[in-house]
Write a structure and sequence with these properties.
The protein is α+β, with helices and mostly antiparallel strands. About 20% of the residues lie in helices and about 30% in strands.
């Protein structure tokens, strides 16, 4: 009752105080639910995703020091429900090729763990580096020791960045004729929820995002539904029951731009295709879904024979099949950018396989269309169904393939490499079958389809540099670039085993590689390092790790302690045949001097045919 004895002015002041206290409590109760992680990295900038509820001010602090003793901030973003309480924070004026630490700020207060990434080198530089990529991440529950192990292997390898190229989480898995009300992407809220699932901090992928930035393009299952195109929706079984959105394609594109920290899009109204550059390598991230012609458009019925024929018209396009698009279409953009690029290496990143030789299997399947075959995961199907599945790849769009390959030839554009996914398995072709060198990595965290093995059993051995024909573990694509000299394509599984490897030499570079055979070592050999023992903290002291190469080879140098823990990893180098030395100043990977003791030195030699040799010896550090 004492409240009513207060004056009106005092009552008003007290109410303001209470409201202010309640507001302050609500603000400081704001919780970081997802992130942060880095994307859209350049030599001088980066973007970051984080999500916090309820609405409030979200930001990123970044520093060269893990304790943020000298930090700077991005521009705060106020989260709200329309964008699923997510914030995309951009930070500029960073130093190139530099390790940075970052952390979320919620209403000015640090929140969540400290993560790290490295900015890219300036465009035109020719560094040695490697990155990882792949597709097909299932929505299997975590944490199980059998699920997500491949991401731990990638994180340990510390790639400069990771490319996720589609089928991330399979959010369309309830999109069936039996559940037509759950058509994925018809409801923006479901698309937003799919991003929260992708970013769940309990999933093993987060171990990789703690140390590497990411770029991403969707494929059918995280864009709309199976084998989706620009005209896939509305479907016959869902048209009458769904009225949430007249254009679920727009929901997918909107969520990508609002909930993923990616690069600027080439045509934000048309799809998510874009490009970025790392030193002397250019990456063309293709959208093979939102503007493609419908796969069925490649077939026609022959009334005379009462059969189906594969006869795609010239306008049947995987990149530019939607004539209603305003501004530049994706195919014209790609050809223009390829011609203008000065990068030594040009990567076409496609969510679906490129391999031209799949066309022969399409023709065979159509010719035997009434025959039945058993397909793993699909059961017994007609070969016409097989043809339709294959037409979802680039081979179903021969006019686009021919136009692209002819353009490259006419304009003398070399060193173009294709990175693909979708197939739930992995393989490499040197270009003889694919048309361009291709590394297909579609087995990140999903049951292996054995697609390459099945093709081989039917006589179609169209990935000639190896693949998953015996080992069917989860696997990823690893790409190592050695300046302007060469690129090595690898498939690495969840136990760090290398399944296949292929090296591509720079077609624009001419140099004398032959040496007098009499001057070459007779074999790969690790010579005793000198001095040994040695005192690393003596000013300027190093020990020389010496080795001899019989042939041109890649060299990896590792130092382990006697408990088997890796102490130092040197950058992979490509060496000519002959005698070489690698200096070690005694520091570990954190930059600290290693403790006195005995260490194991291991050196790996990998020749250009992918054959590897290991050599080991002990060395001692003294104080």
């Amino acid at each position: 009752m004492k409240f009513f004895r207060l004056s009106l002015c005092d009552r008003f002041a007290l109410l303001l105080f209470i409201l202010s206290a309640l507001w302050e409590a609500a603000v400081f109760a704001q919780e970081l639910t997802h992130g942060p992680f880095a994307g859209g990295v350049t030599s001088s900038s980066a973007r970051f995703y984080l999500r916090a509820i309820p609405p409030g001010a979200a930001n990123i602090q970044i520093s060269l020091q893990p304790d943020f003793s000298a930090r700077f901030l991005g521009r705060p973003v106020t989260t709200d429900s329309s964008r699923d309480f997510a914030a995309l924070v951009r930070i500029e004026n960073l130093m190139s090729n530099q390790l940075y630490y970052y952390q979320a700020l919620i209403n000015g207060q640090p929140a969540g763990e400290v993560r790290r990434f490295k900015t890219f080198p300036p465009e035109g530089e020719r560094p040695h580096f490697h990155f990882a990529f792949g597709s097909c991440i299932g929505n299997r529950a975590q944490p199980s020791p059998d699920f997500g192990r491949v991401f731990e292997v990638m994180a340990q390898d510390e790639p400069r960045f990771f490319l996720q190229i589609g089928d991330w989480g399979y959010p369309d898995n309830t999109d069936t004729p039996q559940n037509p009300s759950n058509v994925f992407s018809a409801d923006l809220a479901r698309v937003q929820a799919s991003y929260r699932t992708k970013y769940d901090t309990s999933y093993a992928l987060q171990k990789l995002l703690r140390v590497a930035p990411i770029d991403y393009v969707y494929d059918d299952h995280d864009y709309m539904n199976d084998n989706a195109s620009a005209t896939s929706y509305p479907r016959a079984d869902s048209f009458k029951t769904i009225a949430v959105s007249p254009n679920p394609r727009a929901n997918s594109a909107r969520a990508y731009q609002e909930l993923f920290p990616g690069y600027a899009l080439a045509n934000g109204q048309g799809g998510i295709w874009h490009k970025f550059t790392f030193g002397n390598a250019a990456f063309f991230m293709l959208d093979t879904r939102s503007r493609r012609s419908d796969d069925f458009g490649a077939f026609r019925r022959n009334a005379a024979t009462d059969s189906i024929e594969f006869a795609p018209p010239p306008t049947h396009s995987i990149l530019a099949g939607d004539a209603a698009l305003a501004d530049e279409n994706q195919m014209d953009w790609l050809l223009r950018e390829l011609k203008a690029s000065t990068a030594d290496w040009k990567f076409l990143v496609s969510s679906v396989p490129f391999n031209q030789s799949l066309r022969g299997l399409i023709d065979l399947s159509v010719s035997l269309q009434d025959s039945m075959v058993f397909l793993p995961g699909l059961g017994t199907q007609s070969l016409l169904r097989v043809a339709l599945e294959l037409c979802d790849k680039w081979a179903g769009f021969p006019a686009d393939q021919e136009r692209l390959l002819q353009f490259l030839k006419t304009n003398g554009i070399r060193n173009v490499i294709v990175l693909t996914g979708d197939s739930h398995t992995s393989a490499i072709d040197d270009g003889k079958n694919s048309g361009l060198p291709e590394l297909m990595a579609g087995a990140l965290d999903q049951a292996n389809s054995r697609f390459v093995l099945i093709l081989r059993l039917f006589g179609y051995d169209i990935w000639n540099a190896g693949g998953q024909t015996e080992s069917f573990n989860d696997a990823y694509g690893r790409v190592a670039i050695f300046g302007e000299d060469s690129v090595r394509l690898e498939i690495v599984d969840e136990f760090s085993a290398r399944i296949a490897s292929h090296t591509i030499l720079n077609q624009n570079r001419t140099s004398v590689r032959d040496q007098e055979k009499t001057a070459l070592p007779a074999r790969f050999r690790l010579s005793p390092n000198f001095p040994n023992p040695w005192q690393p903290q003596t000013h300027g002291a190093t020990t020389a790790i010496r080795y001899e190469l019989q042939h041109r080879a890649y060299v990896n140098v590792f130092v382990y302690d006697l408990l088997g823990r890796r102490v130092r990893t040197f950058q992979t180098v490509l060496r000519e045949a002959g005698r070489h030395a690698q200096a070690w100043e005694g520091r570990n990977d954190r930059g600290e001097f290693a403790a006195a003791g005995v260490y194991l030195l291991r050196v790996q030699f990998i020749d250009l045919q992918g054959r590897e040799t290991w050599a080991s010896q002990k060395l001692a550090l003294v104080r």
